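Record type: monomer structure entry
Structure origin: computed from sequence
Chain ID: A
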Amino acid sequence: MDATTVSVCADDKARRRILETLEERLGPQQFNAWFRHGTHLAVADGQVKVSVPNTFVAHWVETHYQSQIASAVRQETGWECPVIVAIDPSLTGELRKHQLDSQAHIVSRAKEGLGRPSGPAETPALRYSLKDFVVGASNRLAYSAALAVTGGQKSPFNPLFIHGACGVGKTHLLQGICNAVNAQRRGSRNFQWRYVTGEQFTNEFIQALRQRKFDEFRARYRKLDLLAIDDVHFLAAKKATQDEFLHTFNAIDAAGKQVVMASDAPPRMVGELNEQLVSRFTAGMVVRIEPPEQATRMEILRRKARALRMDVGDEALEYVAMHLRGSVRELEGALVKLGALAAIDNGKVTADLARRGLADHLARTDSALTLGDIEAVVAAYFGITPADLHSSRRTRTVSVARMMAMFLARRHTQMSYPEIGRHMGKNHSSAVLAVQRMEALLADRGELSWLSPLGRKSAPAEDLVRTLAEQFV
C-alpha cells in the first residue's frame, strides 16, 4: 500500500484522483517531500485529517498546504471539509524508512536472501557503499573498523558493534560492509551473508516457531559467513529471541565467521539485554559514531546536493551546516525542504532562502541534541521502543521511561512544554507534571522503580539521569 493513504467513502478511483489532484497542484517535488512518505490523509466524519510524524511537518503542512488539501478534496468529492493536522508518532518510523534513507526498500530487497554472488547485470541488494561514506573526525574510527572487517582476512574486530544516535551513519556502514564483502567474494558460491534488522530477526524467529520450521531458521543463520544485524537494541526484553540470537552468535563466532551490529546505544545501555550477550558484544570492538562535525556536514551536503541535482550556493550550504548539527538525516531533510522551496520560484537555493526556509525549524531544534535522540537512548535503556513512549500504554516501565524522556528533553533541549507534549502525543500539562515529578525525586534523592521481564528493578533517580545524560555527550 502506498504510504499516502486516503480513506473516504468513495471508490478507489476517487481516492486516486484526490492524490493526483494534490500532486498536480503542488508539483512532484513538493508532493514527494511532504506527502509521499510518512503522511496519512483521511476524509471521514465531515473533516479532513492529515496525520504527520512530528511537529516540524505538522507546522509546515498547517502553514502551507491546508487550503490546497481542502480544495483537492472539494474538487473530487464535492465535500466542504475542514482540514485538521494531527501528529501520529507511529509514522516516524515510516518517515525515516521511506523519505530519508529508503530503509523499507532495502529490507524488502534483502528480506529473503542470503547474500549470494551477483552477476554483472544485477544491482547490489543493499543501497549503501563504503565508497560513498563521508569520513570525518566523528566517524573515522568506526569507518576504519569497517574497512578492517572487509579486508579479506580474518578481522581482528569480531564482533564489531557500532552505536550512536539516529541518523549518523550506522546503517550506511553495515550495508557498506555487506556490499564490499559481497563484491570481493563474487566468484565464491559458498560464501553466504545476510543483512537484517533486529525486528526482522525477531519476526522470522517467531514465524519459525509458529510454522514449526525452526530447523530451517537455524540453518539459514548459523551457516552464515557474515551476519550484519541493524537496530540490535530491538532485542531488548525479548528473552526467547535473545537466547536464540546468543546461540546463533556463538555458532557463527565458533566457526571463525564475522558478526557486525549497530544500535542506538552501547551494549550495557540496552535495557534487559542478556548478560551473556553483553559479554559477547563487549569482547569485540565497540565503537561510537558521533554527530558529524562542521567539515563533514559540509561534504555530506555537497554530495546530497549533487545527487539531487540541486543548484545550491556554498554560502547556503555553509549556513545549513553551521546551524544543523545533529544527524545526517536532519541535514538531508533540510536540503530536500530547501529544494522544494526553490522549486516554487524556479530559483537557486541561496543563503537568504536557507535562512528564511529553516527559521522555524531552527527555532524548534536549536540544540544539536533532539528529542528523537533522547527517546532512542531512553527506550533502549528501559528495553522498550520509541513508539511505546508515544503510545497510550501506562505500564510502570513505559510511564517511568516517558517521564524520564520528557524531563531530559526539557533539560537538554530548547523545546517548550507544549512542544514536548505535542511531539510525544500528550498535552502540555503532562509534560509539566513529568518534569515536576522528576525534579521532586531529584530533590528528595528518591528512587525510580520499574518492571522488567526479569522482575522489579530500581535505581536512584540522580544516578539514572546521569547515566542517560552521559550518552548525549
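Annotation 1: The chain has 22 helices and eleven strands.
Annotation 2: The mean pLDDT is 79.
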